[in-house]
Amino acid sequence: MASGSGASADPSRSARSDHPLLLRSSDPALYFDVKLSIEFTWTGTGPAPLTAGDIAVGGVARRAEEVSKLRALTECERLRAELNIALLHWEPVAMTGVHARAHCVSVEADPELIAGVAAREETIRRRTVLSWQREQREDEVRWLGSLITDPLRATAWWFADNLDKPDQLVKVAQDFQLLRTTLEPEQSDSAGRLVDEFLDDADKAERMWLLETLLNAFGTYGRSDLADRLRTRYGGSIASADDEPAAS
Question: Is the pTM of this model over 0.70?
């Protein structure tokens, strides 16, 4: 008789019938109304049990729900096609001796529930897009903030887009410098402010040691722009390293 991949549909040992089923969707509380044409055959010895039809329905329902629980109510047509793929072949129902297969006649759902799910899906899509836009905006703000606190980089970025305006470069640099000074909180501590305070009070050897340490750190991590700014501001102190050894 039948094997796991096929079955002989002996008229005396097989039957076909249509069955309406409720199959859960990807939302556990929401169900599809599905109509299946189920065919089964008895492959055991002796007469088929009276419950063979129920066994077939139960086996097919389990197979069908493995597919339906992956789909939302808005995907009725897609589910119908996928059920016809999943239920096409004869498969044994556990160790019962019953083999079953089915054809999906229709998949429907309550229109109001479909509308509700569609509205929720649209809300999720909009929130996702807004979240992406917000993240992009925050990245832009952080990047622009880093430019405002670094007038040299900000000026370089401006000049890269305005190579035909070198006569405005000094004015732009001054504007960026003024902007940083204006926006920087006067009373808040920062690493730069603490370094400035140290340099103001340090003796010559201590100043040279700290400046050279900062130059080495900037060079190690590829921040030549910061090293250039440090040399511009403290060039005299750094150059004096040959006159007096740095503190260890």
Answer: no
